[in-house]
Amino acid sequence: MTYIEELQDMIRKLHGVESKHLESVAVKETFHGKTVWEGVVEVFELIKHPKASRAYAWAHDGERPTESGVVVLHLGPITSAATAVRAALVQEFRSLESEQA
Predict the structure, then answer these.
(1) Using a CB cutoff of 8 Å and minimum separation of 24, what contacts does 53-62 make?
(2) What is the pLDDT of residue 66?
(3) Which domain holds residue 20?
(4) What secondary structure does DSSP assign to 18-85, as a single string?
(5) So what's the pLDDT on residue 92?
(6) pLDDT tier at 65 (50, 70, 90 boundaries)?
(7) Number of domains in the chain
(8) Which end of the chain is more exposed for a tag (fewer CB within 10 A), N or C?
(9) How far is Cα 40 from Cα 27, in angstroms, rounded to an integer?
C-alpha cells in the first residue's frame, strides 16, 4: 500500500467516505521566527461527505499514517493546507497543555 493509499484508508476509517488525491502542498509553519512544522500535506477530494468537500492529511516525520496520521476536514476556518496544519498544531498544543495540568 502506498503512502497516499494509507492516507485514503485513514480518511475512510475516520470519516466513512472514499477520496481522490488532488495535490501535494509543501507547508512551513513558523512561530516567533522558528519553524514549528515543515512537511507536505496531501489534499483529497471527499466523495459524498455530508459536510466537507476536501480533507488535508499527513503523517508525522516520515512515520506511516497508520502510526501517526492526521486528517483535517475542509470546514469553517480550515480553507487550505496551511490552515489545516495550524489547526492541528493548536489542537496538539492544547492536548499537551491539558496533560500537564
Answers:
(1) 54/22, 55/11, 55/15, 55/19, 56/80, 56/81, 56/84, 56/85, 57/7, 57/10, 57/11, 58/7, 58/85, 59/3, 59/6, 59/7
(2) 65
(3) 3-100
(4) EEEEEEEEEEEEEETTEEEEEEEEEEEEEES-SS-SEEEEEESTT--HHHHEEEEES-TT--SHHHHH
(5) 81
(6) low
(7) 1
(8) C
(9) 6
